[in-house]
Amino acid sequence: AAGVIQSPRHLIKEKRETATLKCYPIPRHDTVYWYQQGPGQDPQFLISFYEKMQSDKGSIPDRFSAQQFSDYHSELNMSSLELGDSALYFCASSRGTGAKNSPLHFGNGTRLTVT
Amino acid sequence: GNSVTQMEGPVTLSEEAFLTINCTYTATGYPSLFWYVQYPGEGLQLLLKATKADDKGSNKGFEATYRKETTSFHLEKGSVQVSDSAVYFCALSEIPSGSARQLTFGSGTQLTVLP
Predict the structure, then answer these.
(1) Taking the CA atoms of chain A, what radius of gyration do you get in angstroms?
(2) HEC profile of B52-93
(3) Which parts of chain A have pLDDT scores under 70?
(4) Residue B62 and residue A26: Cα distance in Å, rounded?
(5) Contact A33/B102, CB-based, under 8 Å?
(6) What residue in B sits closest to A49 (Cα-Cα)?
(7) Contact B103, B93 (CB under 8 A)
(8) C-alpha angle A13/A37/A6, rounded to 5°?
(9) Could you tell me if residue A43 is left (phi over 0), alpha (psi between -120 and 50 degrees) or otherwise beta?
(10) Lower CB density within 10 Å: C or N end of chain A?
(11) Residue B38 and residue A53: Cα distance in Å, rounded?
(12) A90 — contact with chain B (CB < 8 Å)?
């Protein structure tokens, strides 16, 4: 079965550079979520989109922005990168936002290292 | 706000031992409860879920029962295998009116099963 695809798997950037992470949800999933997982930490919710509109916002820094496109894929744009942004970034997708029986499916994550 | 408290790890067991990972939660409404598993270098995979009180989620020999009276969702397995070695996250999802679902995770419990 198709899963959530994230690219790239690994990314190395220097401080103050920008990075773009991509997420391709499971077919027919219309909701995308972004999470950040620091080393040894639990995943923290950043932002989500439903039908190409931002639906919820968590602890996303102002330096980050994201959007969902017409084909439902999403991109997380990160500017002025800091060392503390080094983490595993997960994307998850689901069908709709109100169905308790539609759980989130996670991608394998993008590991961002800022040097 | 919502929160999830998990049993601290790491947990080390011998193969075929009984596993319990405790999870309790705090929520303002009626959340859905989940266990996710993260194998080394991989994304989060949904292990099991329960959407209402007294529901029992089960998968791959793992079980957890949604206990509203004790606000708990403890994960159990009768006989663990080496391949069960991973990090286990308890999570809840609540749907505030008009908002997209998002997961609140516990801190994760590292399980190592020795042959």
Answers:
(1) 13
(2) CCCCEEEECCEEEECECCCCECCEEECCCCHHHCEEEEEEEE
(3) 1, 97-102
(4) 25
(5) yes
(6) B100
(7) yes
(8) 65
(9) beta
(10) N
(11) 29
(12) yes
Asked if A109 is an interface residue toward chain B (Cβ–Cβ < 8 A), one would say: yes
Residue B99 has its nearest CB partner, among A43, A44, A55, at A55
Q: Which two tokens stand for residue A83?
A: 């060392």
Q: Enumerate residue ranges in chain B where pLDDT < 50.
A: 97-98
Task: Please give the pLDDT value at position A103.
Answer: 74
B87 Cβ contact partners less than 8 Å away, ≥ 6 residues apart: B37, B38, B108, B109, B110, B111
Question: Checking DSSP bridges between strand A31-37 and strand A87-94, what pairing results, if any?
Answer: antiparallel
Q: Hey, what's the torsion of the CAs at B53, B55, B58, B61, to 10 degrees? A: 90
Regarding beta strands A19-24 and B102-105, do their DSSP bridges make them parallel or antiparallel, or are they unpaired?
A: unpaired
CA distance A9 to B48: 26
B43 and A109: CB-CB below 8 Å? yes
Using an 8 Å CB-CB cutoff, list chain A residues near B106: 42
Does A56 sit within 8 Å of B102, measured CB to CB?
yes
Tokens of B40: 């080394």
Q: What is the DSSP letter of B107?
A: -
> Chain B neighbours among A 11-70 (CB < 8 Å)?
31, 33, 35, 41-45, 48-50, 55-56, 58
pLDDT for residue B97: 46
| B57 within 8 A of B35, measured Cβ to Cβ | yes
Q: Is B36 on the interface with A (CB under 8 A)?
A: yes
- Structure confidence at residue B103 (pLDDT): 83
